[in-house]
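re: ur question from yesterday

yeah so i grabbed the chain u mentioned. its 333 aa long if i counted rite. heres the sequnce exactly as i have it in my notes:
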Amino acid sequence: MKIGCLGSGAWGYTLANLLASNGHEVFIWARNKDLIDHLKQKREHPKFPGIKMEESLIPKESFDEVINSSDILLESVTSKGLREVLETIKSNFPNFQKPIILTSKGIEQHTGFLMDELTIDIMGESYKKYVGCLSGPSIAKEVLQQLPASCVSSAYDNDLMHTIQKLFFNPYFRVYPNADIHGVEFGGAMKNPIAIACGISDGLGFGANTKAALMTRGLHEIRKLSMVKGAKSETLNGLAGLGDLCTTCLSVHSRNYRFGFLLAEGVTPEKARENIGMVIEGANTCLSVLELGKKANIETPITKAVHDIIYNGISPKDAVKHLLTRMVKEEHL
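ran it thru and got these structure tokens back, copy pasting raw so excuse formatting
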């Protein structure tokens, strides 16, 4: 199959390379022309020096050429940049009917849309059958090194869901189908603010007990708010929820975790972003989570604490103190 990858960040590149290793012809595009030139000349990504890309992974400068040449699209821009990319497709290709696999993990601000809802909002209700996603616990560098990993494929259309599963499946990358697309996407989006909280916790020198509490209560926040989107609780207990939460909260390779760690060390949010050099999805998502929670009258105290540290200048120590002194309620999971 011919697959077009929109976005050449760490995760998009890794998935594109994986698909190429599975025998597909993959075209990869990025707005950054210098990055495309680097991929062409060096045959490796600047974030992963020494790991050569597959021969059938072909960098392309032309957005339209990638769209025209592909049977299916792999989306891997940012959640904030997805709307612009889809609007460009809709404008340049008004009759576009190729499937798209969403991999961005986020919730759009103000609309509260998950990435599949955003896609349908732009492309139209009739495009729904072409919308799918891939999500789960996946650190790009580990996948690129072919270390064993498992993810989840989902889609509105059952055939597309299984097509995605087969495209990515190989001996080191196991993919499970799950038809609960909102559960799969919601777990992937909302775990990022919790990972920032865990990075802050470690940066402050707290222990495993603290992180276990943050992850467990964080999962509770995710499950509570996921009901707004009609997600199934069992999905949030699986790879796309708990699994992704564990990886993002525990790995030093997680950009959201590292962002939190730097904040705890006294680095400003702006400098922390600059230090990491990649989009911090959790910083954007916490804004959307608070908007959703306010509309549904659902509290998300950990996400609120992360928001206050990033946007309101609250010190990490004061935010933790506030969390620990909140009124205790009976635990309901």
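noticed a couple things. The chain has two domains: 2-179, 190-324. also The beta strands are 2-6, 25-29, 57-60, 72-75, 100-102, 131-135, 149-155, 173-177.
anyway ttyl
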